[in-house]
Write a structure and sequence with these properties.
Rossmann fold, six-stranded parallel sheet, globular, disordered C terminus, 24 strands, 4 domains, Alpha-Beta Plaits, about 30% helix
Length: about 450
């Protein structure tokens, strides 16, 4: 598939990286020669130095043969104009645009077929707010991903030495049974799709597939406190911080919002009814102590400076707070942040990559979720009547090594699969797969399931 990406920032770079590793024909356009050089030196993609709003540049990139355009610059106007041009240059190209401006987002008719004809709008701010709200609803989780409208949840937890799962072989675990299944394990900078012989170690980040109705019981299994989060500190009143504070304001939780911009604080004070606005530097230890941050249930660092966010979360940890959520945009920082004890990280590009992968997959794919550092994916797919995998016990199916079936959704029933489980037509399947076996899954299900 030929895919043209406009914009070589963090979002564009990592989308290009993921797609090129899957052997797609990727062309990336940017008007910054330094970013173009970085792409050329690190990725196996074609690069063009110029503007995505140039019809000739789009033609040079091969838009007439392209199946998809991803406009992911920091400028909404550039992204929208690129899509508008592509609408006229190749009406069959799928168009995906990153849009941040609330005024544009409010004009839903702007993006329909009669106007810009954009197939998917990516708003990373809204995606990050939804991510944080999901984490607040599952105390102790490092990541929460919903499937089938929340009926099935993929929840990751950092395993400590006191966990009943620490140093246990998966095949020996009791108490899991039909309740939960371990779909993936992150150990350092490696991600594993586990088998029964694998052992869980302290400091592993473990992804559990859980029925939405079984979340509380899962937390009990893991000896993780399930105390509701009601006392929250947000540092950073930018677009994401303001949107999150507004969402929490409606829930009437105890929320403090800290920012060092006086005008921004005044705006927030006029917008919010129940949130306490504090003007100050969130990286100031004395200010955090004065605001009694150590006694809060949660601190969320959302400034535009990821180094500051890391420092703020570390300061809060040092004051005794149990949970922090840290916004980190650079992929290279994520392993380091995890190593120093900040396990809950939100990354704006991950949501964008997830949405784009969903559009790239063909057939009966319902949703795609890249896992930590994108080395594995959780994929929701529908089983078709023509597939050889239906009406056959799982133990007789040959999934590629590095892939595992995590859950089956059948009507209102959520089935955590066992060896004797049989897949039926129209079941929804949640499958975990390492990135390197995705192509094997493509070949395996191309005809039988129209998987991709």
């Amino acid at each position: 598939m030929r895919i043209i990406i406009v914009g070589a920032g963090e979002v564009g770079y990592h989308i290009a990286k993921t797609l090129s590793e899957e052997k797609h024909d990727v062309v990336l356009i940017d008007n910054d020669p330094k970013k173009i050089r970085r792409i050329s030196e690190n990725l196996d993609v074609q690069t063009l130095w110029g503007s995505g709003t140039s019809p000739q540049m789009l033609k040079d990139a091969g838009i007439e043969e392209a199946e998809m355009l991803v406009a992911a610059t920091n400028s909404d106007e550039v992204n929208l104009i690129s899509c508008m041009l592509v609408r006229n240059l190749n009406q069959h190209t799928i168009k995906i645009a990153r849009v941040k401006n609330r005024e544009y987002l409010a004009l839903k008719d702007l993006f329909n077929k009669e106007h810009l004809g954009i197939d998917l709008i990516i708003n990373t701010r809204a995606m990050m707010v939804d991510t944080v709200l999901s984490l607040i609803n599952v105390p102790g989780a490092s990541e929460v991903i919903d499937f089938v409208g929340g009926k099935v949840k993929l929840i990751s937890f950092l395993i400590n030495r006191d966990s009943p799962f620490a140093e246990k072989r998966l095949s020996s675990l009791s108490g899991l049974g039909n309740d939960i299944l371990i779909g993936a394990i992150v150990r350092g900078q490696k991600i594993l799709i586990p088998s029964g012989k694998d052992i869980i170690h302290p400091h592993d980040l473990v992804y559990f597939v859980v029925r939405g109705s079984d979340v509380s019981r899962t937390l009990e299994h893991l000896n993780i406190p399930n105390k509701p989060i009601t006392n929250i500190v947000i540092v950073g009143a930018g677009e994401t911080g303001a949107a999150l504070a507004s969402a929490l304001d409606e829930k009437r939780l105890r929320v403090k919002l800290i920012d060092d911009d006086s005008e921004r604080c005044k705006q927030m004070a006029n917008m919010l009814n129940h949130v306490i606005i504090i003007k100050g530097d969130g990286a100031d230890r004395d200010l955090l102590r004065e605001e009694n941050v150590g006694c809060a249930d949660l601190l969320i660092a959302l400034t535009g400076d990821e180094e500051s966010n890391i420092l703020i979360s570390l300061l809060a940890k040092g004051m005794g707070i149990q949970k922090t959520i840290t916004r980190v945009s650079k992929l290279s920082y994520i392993p380091v942040v995890s190593d120093i004890g900040l396990d809950t990280v939100i990354n704006p590009r991950m949501a964008a990559v997830r949405a784009i992968l969903h559009h790239i997959r063909h057939g009966k794919i319902i949703s795609v979720a890249p896992l930590r550092e994108e080395h594995a994916e959780a994929i929701e797919v529908e089983a078709l009547e023509t597939s050889d995998i239906v009406n056959t016990p799982l133990k007789k199916l040959n999934f590629p090594e590095g892939a595992i079936l995590g859950a089956i959704v059948r009507g209102e029933d959520i089935i955590i699969p066992q060896g004797d489980t049989v897949i039926l037509p129209h079941d929804r399947l949640i499958i975990f797969a390492l990135q390197q076996v995705i192509s094997d899954l493509e070949k395996l299900f191309m005809v039988k399931m129209e998987y991709f």
